[in-house]
Hints:
By secondary structure, this protein is an alpha/beta fold.
Amino acid sequence: MNTELAKNIHWVGYVDWPVRDFHGYQTKRGSSYNAYLVQGEAKTALIDTVKAPFANNLKQHVAALCPLDRIDYIVCNHAEPDHSGSLPAMVAACPNAIVVCNAKCRDALSHYYDTAAWRFQVVKEGESLDLGGRTLRFFDTVMCHWPESMVTYVLEEEILFSMDIFGQHYATSCRFDDEADLDEVMQEAKTYYANIVLPYAKPVAAAAKKLLGLKLRIVAPSHGVIWRTYFDRILQDYLRWHVSTPTRKVVIFYATMWQSTRRMAEAVAEGANESDVSVKLFDLKAVGDTELITELMDCAAFACGTPTLNQSLMPRMAAALTYARGLKPAGKKAFTFGSYGWASKGAEEAEGYLKAFGCELVAAPITCRFAPTPETLEACRSAGRLLGQAAAAIPQA
Ligand code: FEO
């Protein structure tokens, strides 16, 4: 496996093939935690670490290139434990290492770990560290993904260690974009954006604008492949996704108990399908939240259906909407629907979620008692037509 980004700059991370749950994100193709070793003429720096269980793998990768007692700095760009989890082990194994991070990161690390005996060098925006022929420069990227997030740039080689930005949860034996299956990489980059980056789209766009002022030959994120050939593609996609640019797509998702809400969902889809747009229909039994939010991110309009269960919405729908509410797919037209037995609560409660993430509601909740009548189904078709027309108004890509 080629791990060399440039002379004396190597990937030393860990590929986590079996991981399938990343704090609720269903990582169907695994992930990687990318750490990098930068060896200057005088000093050596390790850029980030890996999840705690894989500390020994990291040590082995580093030790194959450099004795651990020759590590002078361990840069911590981000305190989240997928990157800082092996810091305690690495600080213990590298007796001469100083932890380099910003002030907020130092504070966060002190909450996660016993850092009392650690030696720190706190850096500020734009500060540099001279390794001898290799200069590391640090830039704050607040809220990309946490308040303390920063990135590290190797001046002479024009390499940016971009932390979570431009990452993908994607396990592969290939380290570089031009070695991997690019379609898979781009799909996982999109899924990653929808599930991790979306709520921080504005700070990420601002950070990207700042970082694009640098000469970028290689962009090396902390998950997935390293961009050295197709960075323009991921950059263009980030510019579209950051405003959740809608496409000519309508998404309908539903939960159902006795098929009444399913029949309503199908009628909504029929109405939307009358326009020349893509229509996707999901039973929440058959789709996970990770895939669903990725579909919602770039749709123009959606509808969600839930029966009333115990005077509320179906728990599976509540979970999906709670997940979506946190990620805030913006600027969508939408409505809710669903069946009930004695009192209609589910569709109305679901509408509250849609209001919370700023949807433009095109219809009041459409409900039916027990089973949809032909009139109910026509109301669903009619509201579906509004969604289809909204999507059709989006110019063809
Ligand atoms: Fe990959 Fe925000 O950590």
